[in-house]
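Here's my example:
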Amino acid sequence: HMQDFSGKIAVITGGGTGMGRALARALIAEGCHVATCDVIDENLEETRRLCETEAPQGVRIATFRCDVANEDEVDAFARGVAETFETEHINLLFNNAGIGGGGSFVTASRDEWDRTFNICWNGVYFMSRAFLPMLLASSEGHIINTSSVNGFRASLGGNIPHTSYSAAKFAVKGFTEALINDFRFNAPHLKASVVMPGYVGTQIAKNTGKILGHKTPLEMTDEELEEMRGRFVLMGNAGEDSTPDEIRQQWHNSQENYEKGGLTPEQAADIILSGVRNEEWRILVGPDAVALDEAVRADPVNAYDLGFSEKVWASMQQES
């Protein structure tokens, strides 16, 4: 088991905020060299500043701008890591980057649907392809792929369509599970883990809008808000009779407050790194992830009944 991360080399995607930044800081504190990437420059720069401030002497942080959905950029990222650290190997690959978007296969634009899917799935695939030679060159290595609770139930919250993200997260889960035996027989010094987070308070809602080029809620016109009223009602960001101004403010508040709920990114990073140390191939992050996992496996046929979510949340409240 890779109990000690000191002196190891880790690569983390989506390191500008949230769990990616928390993983970078936690690993740096343990003496692990870290290379991380993001597409939002100011977030990436803040991660670099924090890690450089907190790094023990001799421990290095390197940051790269990289769109994980672009294979050429991913390949350049891999070359950059090799050159920066003057190494032929890495030990840890955290495929963490992701955005939301593309909720409906019926009503969302294809551009948004594809962009979301390409980041959440192709980002994992391209990174794994690009860094596999460096993992194979290590004495011990581990790929940690972030799926989601939407990787075992393809719905956002209660019963809200969430097709692009969910399809990608199912793919990430299946790919990682397939690697278990692949590595066992073809690269026994490598391990694979799939991370299934529930609600972690990150900036994914804000970052999704930035990456997809959306207007902020306060910038949207009344007409644009009306086109999305149905989804806002499902998500609890509007009532049937809410005015555009009320929807605008409620949606803005929802984005602002998202990162204040759930587990903190630091708590999530601790759970993930503990799972890596213990070679857990399946790492559930948060009580909601545990509860939903148990409920879906116990009653998969009824997982998409309209009352299913309420049963899960009720069982969580009873246990707490």
Notes: The mean pLDDT is 93. Residues 41 and 256 are 20 Å apart (CA to CA). Residues 110-136 form the longest helix (27 residues). The first strand starts at residue 9 and ends at 13.
